[in-house]
Amino acid sequence: MRPFELTAPTTVEAALAQTGMYVAGGTTLVDLMKLNVLTPHHVLDINALPLRGIDTADGIRFGALERMSDIAAHPGVYPMISRALSLSASQQLRNMASIGGNLLQRTRCGYFRDVAMPCNKREPGSGCPAVTDANRMHAILGASGSCVATHASDVAVSLVALDTEIRLVSGQGDRTVKLADFYRLPGDTPAVENDLRPGELITEVIVPRLDWAQHSTYVKVRDRQSYEFALCSAAVALHVQDSRIVDARVAVGGVATVPWRLHRVEAALRGAPPTAAAFDEAAGVAVEGAKPLSNNRFKVSLVKSTIFRALVELTEGSSA
């Protein structure tokens, strides 16, 4: 790790007045600094900023510095959010990691994290070995010839499914953007991962009220049961009335370059009965446009089976 200056502002205004990289839990930034993937000259410890709190009075609002474990344990949080958080990393890391930091975490692609290897995301124009080399963990959706790295966050998948917004503050004012619009596909500029502007800080995460999202889940498929990133995950919420699906929310992770909302799957579910046959048919459209790589073709069927499993999990034992 290279030498750096550390300061600890106590107000948002003071933090915005300085130039550097923000650190809260440090579960991403510190790792990348140790690997020399990121080498900031100035790091701002923002843990003293007044950006905490969980409000479930009308929808859900999290302060950006709320810890993942505290959000997961809150009784008013929708199950798909709580479960996604609980299946992330380890308990020790969840106790440290902030929700804002989690949404901004960098990819776990091995090429990105190895400074001896080329990586367009780390060094634009250097190449992407994953396109042709080892790529079992990489994306089949939303990728480009410049980058096939998957997005790492579990909870972002659930939050995108729920039309979550984030509040961003800078010296020029504040703005609110949908999380789904915040993340950027790699295209020809994979180093630009999101719409965070210079000097901006995430201050709040805003989940709109959706009462039927209490009937939701998050299923994560991975190589081992703990402390492992997803091969595929599915965040699913269903609204069932009179033995018909009135509405649905579906998004997947571990298979795309950004948290991947599946509007066509949702449309296929609306009006259908909550049966295995209907779930299988809806899951079938999830991988339209997928472009598997040499070592991850299995993800095409895994996406469909993971969505199917989540839908069945939601409806097993239901009176609907």
TrEMBL record:
Give a yes or no for keyword GTP-binding in this entry: no
Query: Keyword set for this entry?
Result: Oxidoreductase
Q: Which SMART domains match?
A: CO_deh_flav_C
Q: Which InterPro entries match?
A: CO_DH_flav_C (IPR005107), CO_DH_flav_C_dom_sf (IPR036683), Diverse_Substr_Oxidored (IPR051312), FAD-bd_PCMH (IPR016166), FAD-bd_PCMH-like_sf (IPR036318), FAD-bd_PCMH_sub1 (IPR016167), FAD-bd_PCMH_sub2 (IPR016169), Mopterin_DH_FAD-bd (IPR002346)
What's the domain of life for this entry?
Bacteria
Pinpoint the FAD-binding PCMH-type domain residues. 1-212
The record, for Gene3D superfamilies, names:
3.30.465.10, CO dehydrogenase flavoprotein, C-terminal domain (3.30.390.50), Uridine Diphospho-n-acetylenolpyruvylglucosamine Reductase, domain 2 (3.30.43.10)
The record's Pfam families line, in alphabetical order, gives: CO_deh_flav_C, FAD_binding_5
Q: What are the protein's GO molecular function terms?
A: FAD binding; oxidoreductase activity
The protein's name: Xanthine dehydrogenase YagS FAD-binding subunit
Q: Which organism is it from?
A: Kibdelosporangium aridum
